[in-house]
Amino acid sequence: MAMAMALSDTIICLTASNQLPPPASPFNSLKPPLFWPWQKVKMGPLSVSPMGFGTWAWGNQLLWGYQPSMDSQLQQVFNLAVDSGINLFDTADSYGTGRLNGQSEKLLGKFIREFTGGKRIQDDIVIATKFAAYPWRLTPGQFVQACRASRDRMQVEKIGIGQLHWSTANYAPPQELALWNGLVAMYEKGLVKGVGVSNYGPKQLVKIHDYLKARGVPLCSAQVQFSLLSMGEEQMEIKNICDSLDIRLISYSPLGLGMLTGKYTPSKLPQGPRSLLFKQILPGLEPLLVSLREIARKRGKTMPQVAINWCICKGTVPIPGVKTVKQAEENLGALGWRLSSNELLQLDYAAQESPRRMIQNIFQTK
């Protein structure tokens, strides 16, 4: 299967013009789809779009300024994504601050139920939700209960991918095995179609893969911070492990929390906690931002579209976050074309030449 995944990715990337051909249609006004049906990628037993959307902002007031008044626009974002062929949406039971805890899952469930495109399309939607390794989740049964609670919030029969949000191996090793057994139990009980992990480093990723395999449970996805700002030795090792073990890598923060969009400078920072991080990293990103800007100009694309396309061409499934229709439309522009091998090399080199890197998630293990 690893060979099939690699071959599929290679065939998709190696198009002569790096553009999709127009559909065979007598109607010249019809636009080609963003990607063709055979370009879906395998994620365990599931077939997903080459890009998904992340919903961390859907309910998070502290970092992303969410307000319930945004819900109607978020539903438009969801409808636009699904109408455009996107069927993967990433969320978590911890997304949503304070009284809004679980709000992201609730909104996704509501949007699926109210989508008017037909039951077949609704059934094709894959929700990948993450279950937090809270200190009080000490037994497999408690982890299964967390899965049931997420399912109830979304009001779905079965969750697409149930993911362990982070590993406790660094600070509570006994809890780790209980959580692994919880993944096994939710899979065996038919609560999820597949299981995945998030924020697992290379060593722990191999360990949990081998453990789950021995229990007859395939590990279908591994979600880590992966972008032109997060392509260090460890992240590339994770990617190589995923390729060798038939695990699909989901790349979160493909735009470096917004640093790769070109919208910010050391003198123009975002509001809120992100500004502290941007202040540290942005001054050292000039080589990378110059290359992104140059390729975007030549391609008639935007910098975010180029950065997301880089993740796709690396064989990952990026999940950029979206809050507005404008953001969704821009992210969708990352599909339907491919960076050339020379452009990929140029970006890789520029990323290596930039003296600053994204700080890795403190929850990622070794």
Automatic annotation (TrEMBL):
Annotated SUPFAM superfamilies: NAD(P)-linked oxidoreductase
InterPro entries (alphabetical): AKR, Aldo-Keto_reductase, Aldo/ket_reductase_CS, NAD(P)_OxRdtase_dom_sf, NADP_OxRdtase_dom
Xref: Gene3D superfamilies: NADP-dependent oxidoreductase domain (3.20.20.100)
Domain NADP-dependent oxidoreductase as annotated: residue spans: 50-348
Protein name: Pyridoxal reductase
Entry keywords, A to Z: NADP, Oxidoreductase
Any one GO cellular component localisation term in the record: cytoplasm
Transmembrane segments: none
Pfam families to which the protein is assigned, alphabetical: Aldo_ket_red
Entry superkingdom: Eukaryota
Molecular function in Gene Ontology: oxidoreductase activity
Organism: Hibiscus syriacus (Rose of Sharon)
